[in-house]
Fold this sequence. Notes:
- Helix 1 (2-8) runs antiparallel to helix 2.
- The chain has helices at 2-8, 15-26, 30-38, 51-54, 63-78, 86-97, 99-106, 112-123.
- The protein is built from eight helices and no strands.
- The protein has a single domain, classed as Double Clp-N motif, CATH 1.10.1780.
- It is mainly alpha-helical.
Amino acid sequence: MVALAGTAMPFAHSAADEAERWLRALRLHGQVGSVLQALGVGEAPLVTETEQERQSTPAHGPEILYEVTRRATGFAAEREADTVGTPDLLFAVFDVYGKLFDRVLYMRGTGRDELVERLAAAASPR
């Protein structure tokens, strides 16, 4: 999943565009992808932004892949996990992008709270 996101980041024109690209990669993989798809999060946003809104924050650049991966690795280590999972990556993206990622989720008809709640429910043993 990180490799997929990494191929898309060089083409991002703003931090908001990077956040969009993270969401596109996340919705295709692992636990987070399953939850996003169950929530009906699609490829295209339900609400559109103006070009000015999209360009309002400069892109983080190539180092963003390292930063998200570093934070995700930290989250996995805190859980004493052997591998980094998509939930770790999601929380790293939340950490790095904050309200920008919240906006990306909102534009696709969901929010951070709903996503985290569904992810927790999916992960809990039945």
